[in-house]
Specification:
mainly alpha; 63% helix
């Protein structure tokens, strides 16, 4: 089958179908059903291990939920009347605000993420069926590829983080599908343009991917689509910048300013070159970076084989630009989520390129490629299989620690508190929560980045906000805590996705010692199994 024939077949399939169900083949429905069963089992087991409650695998999800509640109240941050920018996404808190408005709570981000995972599977299946990848493949190969792709996009584990990453994967894959359509001489659909526009709004690193995709559209003679996407992205980013400026907040959120190595290097006055070099070395030694590099090399090798296919080379170049950008500037892991979008992109792009290459290969050579194809994709997918297996334990771990800290702050103590892990303590807490790490507190963020943050500043901020207790990881504060604070208890929990197993409880000078002791003694017997509170001072 020639490339032109593949394009014609794809166009015929698209023209012959109107509704979503009409566009779903039997194979797609089977793969969706497999994903649904796996995800449902994951969710049920996770809820069962978390005391019968939906608890995400990372506390970060609840930061977004807290910001969403403040958006509904006319603010932005985690505390009423105090502006901060702890969210790692421009649009995610606003999407969650819509679900918070109808009181869905944690089910809101879960439903959006699960829907995004399902939509990604549909997009991949339509893309691979449309390009003819499955036409000459045996049923065993097709089945293995499809199930592997479920895990390469982390469609089972990623929604349980409650974060924007599943939506980011969908936007990345759907944008690629728009480029594939342009390679066949068709304009990207409205949905594909929307996905391209959403890329930088979902995750800031999506801006680089959006730039590469727009450049590819121009080279593929889809200038109108590229111009429309550029105009919409510019308008959205200008609106966001105007909003942040009006609130007196930086253009980049605290999570980027405090966590990103490249930005951190600028504040530490090291060179940009050294920051990129450090990230390149990390990519070479990191298991996720190694997988990404292997997929990138597979894309490059297949593109070289297709060197006479101009559209394929343009799309491969855009994909390799995204891979190179992540290798140079991106982060990895943090419970298998930072790199999954580009792993998914490289895997889908490679399969699409292989589909374009197969008609030019001898049948025996094409068959011989099946084994290395599956081996590399399986190797890339394995961390996300492990993530799916670990997810129920991670959900229970957040329930054992941050969920219990939130219960203590809201139900037992009911006074302003300070923390270094913000989410569940701040979410739906009517009392002030001081973030000693800096994501939800602009004074802390500015002091940290200026290099003058320590016990004195912690004590001053706690006194300013009438904070009576602090619940922190001691090892996160190498300079120690204020001398006026008294350690009164330690919460001991298992260690899966929490940053540390022990949480130290400190009483500040503003606290009533007797009230603190009563709250701790009432709280201790209510803790779940394998969690203990050692009360040190009464």
């Amino acid at each position: 089958m020639t490339i032109e024939a593949i394009g014609s077949a794809d166009a015929d399939r698209s023209a012959a179908s109107d509704g979503l169900m009409a566009r779903l083949t039997r194979r797609s429905l089977v793969i969706l059903s497999i994903w649904f069963v796996l995800f449902a089992v994951e969710l049920i087991v996770s809820i069962n291990l978390a005391g019968g409650r939906l608890v995400f695998t990372l506390d970060d999800a609840y930061i977004h939920l807290a910001v969403a509640d403040q958006i509904l109240s006319g603010g932005y941050g985690v505390n009423p009347g105090e502006f901060s920018s702890p969210s790692s996404s421009i649009i995610w808190p606003y999407l969650i605000a819509a679900t918070e408005a109808v009181h869905l709570g944690g089910w809101g981000p879960l439903l959006i993420s699960a829907a995004a995972a399902a939509a990604t599977i549909v997009t991949i299946m339509r893309l691979l069926e449309g390009c003819g990848l499955f036409d000459a493949a045996g049923s065993w190969l097709v089945g293995a590829l499809c199930v592997t792709m479920i895990f390469i996009i982390s469609a089972v584990a990623l929604p349980m983080t409650g974060l924007e990453h599943s939506l980011h994967v969908w936007a990345t894959v759907t944008t690629f599908a728009g480029l594939a359509a342009a390679a066949q001489g068709r304009a990207p659909s409205g949905l594909q343009i929307a996905a391209l526009v959403l890329l930088p709004l979902i995750r800031f690193e999506g801006a680089a991917r959006a730039c590469a995709a727009r450049a590819a559209l121009v080279l593929l003679r889809q200038r109108r689509a590229a111009a429309l996407a550029a105009a919409l992205i510019a308008a959205a980013l200008l609106a966001y910048a105007a909003r942040m400026h009006a609130l007196g907040l930086p253009l980049l959120p605290s999570s980027v300013l405090l966590k990103a190595r490249f930005v951190e290097a600028a504040y530490e006055r090291t060179t940009a070159f050294s920051a990129v070099t450090d990230n390149l070395i990390l990519s070479l030694i990191n298991p996720y970076g190694q997988r990404l590099l292997l997929l990138g090399m597979a894309v490059a090798a297949t593109a070289c084989w297709l060197r006479g296919d101009r559209p394929a080379l343009i799309i491969a170049g855009a994909v390799l630009a995204a891979v190179g950008g992540h290798v140079a500037f991106g982060q990895y892991d943090w419970f298998h989520r930072y790199e999954v979008y580009v792993i998914a992109l490289a895997a889908v792009a490679w399969l699409w390129l292989v589909a374009r290459l197969r008609p030019n290969l001898d049948a025996r050579v094409a068959t011989a490629l099946n084994a290395p194809l599956l081996m590399l994709l399986g190797f890339a997918a394995w961390p996300y299989v492990a993530a799916a297996l670990a997810t129920p334990l991670a959900s229970r771990n957040i329930y054992q620690q941050q969920y219990q800290m939130g219960r203590f702050a809201r139900e037992f103590y009911r006074h302003p508190v300070a923390v270094n892990d913000l989410g569940l303590v701040a979410y739906r807490n009517p009392n002030y929560v001081l973030d000693l790490w800096g994501l939800g507190s602009e004074p802390v963020r500015k002091a940290k980045l200026a290099g003058h943050y320590g016990p004195a500043e912690m004590a001053a901020l706690a006194a300013q906000h009438a904070v009576d207790m602090a619940m922190i990881y001691d090892r996160w504060f190498p300079q120690g805590v204020p001398a006026s604070w008294t350690k009164v208890a330690v919460l001991h929990t298992p260690f899966v996705t929490v940053a540390a197993g022990d949480v130290a409880f400190y009483r500040t000078p503003d606290a009533d010692p007797a009230e603190v002791t009563r709250a701790l003694e009432a709280f201790a017997p209510t803790l779940p199994p394998n969690v203990a509170l050692d009360i040190l001072s009464r």
